[in-house]
């Protein structure tokens, strides 16, 4: 459908948050189906480094995508390659048979930071197109649709936690399972009950960007391969237990326990894939332990971001240490970010 006329006087703007996480990978059906008897869960916190998508009119029969950190691209309607660096975005437009549209993506999170940026962008794009067509924007439906489109074009198994965090916002433990009608569903278990709870958590958390482009496909594929081969199923069973315990620790403000669980889970991941922390990540991880804090990579690691949890005084010292470690690395920095209670926002 040609959207140029519709968007001429009514451009659509939508934004969604990114996320940090614990217990990732378990949101991939390759994992949560064989481990269903253990009630697999994941944990994430939506962060207020939001990805904004704007739909504006473009030439009839053409689709253009622009995103900070990437070269803009445009193709004829129906001919956009889904294996392009921005193929996921074109695939989202194709779902609506849309053309005559320019999709502009502006993310406040660093590029390739392992904060779920591309999946978040897909959620925002789908919500924007729903808005154009005056469809209801249901967060769960948008999250699952974004997940299935990404899975169909990525060529590797994909999870749904990034899309869920973007669609709903907030901080949650998620239960991954098959619903009563035979399809996958998730249950949400919020961490914070109020604005004050979120505010009180701020001094107990830091997020650092390592300044190194993140590529999750290789590490993720090795986790998937080792699980399918039967080599690491007991490891992921332990990660389920740790994730549930981490949620309980954050819920009860037991930050020393939460920190210990971050260290233990990261070490398990390192045993499976030693390069889940790169050289900078190793230094940040060691500094966190030295200051009685916990730290963990985001996403599939291998670069990108680390996030830390600990006591308030310990986090002050850790922040100073991390700044020192990052000061000579291009683009690396502590991120000024907070938990974002909002998911999809339509302007």
UniProtKB/TrEMBL annotation:
GO cellular component, one term: cytosol
Pfam family, one: GHMP_kinases_N
GO molecular function: ATP binding; galactokinase activity
Domain of life (superkingdom): Bacteria
Single Gene Ontology BP annotation: galactose metabolic process
Broad class of enzyme this protein falls into: transferase
Keywords assigned by UniProt, alphabetized: ATP-binding, Kinase, Nucleotide-binding, Transferase
EC number: 2.7.1.6
Occurrences of domain GHMP kinase N-terminal (ranges): 93-170
Signal peptide from the UniProt entry: none
Protein name in UniProt: Putative GHMP kinase/galactokinase GalK
Organism this protein belongs to: Desulfotignum phosphitoxidans DSM 13687
Gene designation per UniProt: galK
């Amino acid at each position: 459908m040609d959207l140029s006329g519709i968007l001429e006087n009514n451009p659509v703007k939508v934004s969604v948050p990114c996320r940090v996480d614990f217990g990732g990978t378990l949101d991939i059906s390759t994992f949560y189906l064989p481990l269903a008897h253990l009630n697999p869960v994941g944990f994430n916190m939506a962060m207020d480094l939001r990805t904004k998508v704007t739909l504006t009119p473009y030439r009839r029969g053409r689709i253009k995508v622009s995103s900070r950190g990437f070269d803009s691209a445009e193709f004829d309607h129906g001919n956009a390659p889904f294996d392009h660096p921005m193929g996921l975005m074109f695939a989202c437009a194709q779902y609506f048979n849309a053309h005559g549209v320019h999709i502009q993506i502006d993310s406040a999170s660093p590029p390739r930071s392992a904060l779920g940026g591309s999946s978040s962008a897909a959620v925002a794009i789908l919500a924007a197109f729903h808005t154009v067509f005056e469809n209801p924007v249901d967060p769960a439906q948008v999250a699952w649709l974004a997940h299935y489109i990404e899975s169909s074009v990525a060529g590797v198994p994909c999870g749904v936690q990034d899309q869920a965090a973007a669609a709903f916002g907030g901080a949650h433990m998620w239960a991954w399972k098959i619903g009563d009608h035979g399809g996958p569903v998730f249950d949400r278990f919020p961490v914070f009950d109020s604005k004050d709870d979120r505010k009180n958590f701020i001094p107990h958390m830091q997020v650092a960007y390592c300044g190194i482009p993140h590529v999750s496909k290789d590490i993720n594929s090795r986790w998937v391969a080792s699980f399918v081969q039967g080599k690491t199923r007991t490891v992921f069973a332990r990660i389920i237990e740790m994730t549930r315990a981490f949620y309980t620790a954050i819920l009860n403000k037991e930050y020393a326990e939460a920190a210990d669980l971050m260290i233990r889970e990261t070490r398990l991941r390192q045993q499976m894939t030693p390069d889940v922390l790169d050289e900078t990540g190793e230094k940040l991880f060691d500094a966190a332990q030295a200051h009685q804090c916990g730290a963990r990579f985001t996403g599939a690691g291998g670069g990108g971001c680390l996030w830390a949890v600990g006591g308030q005084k310990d986090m002050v010292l850790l922040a100073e240490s991390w700044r020192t470690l990052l000061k000579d690395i291009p683009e690396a920095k502590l991120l000024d970010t907070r938990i974002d209670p909002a998911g999809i926002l339509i302007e």
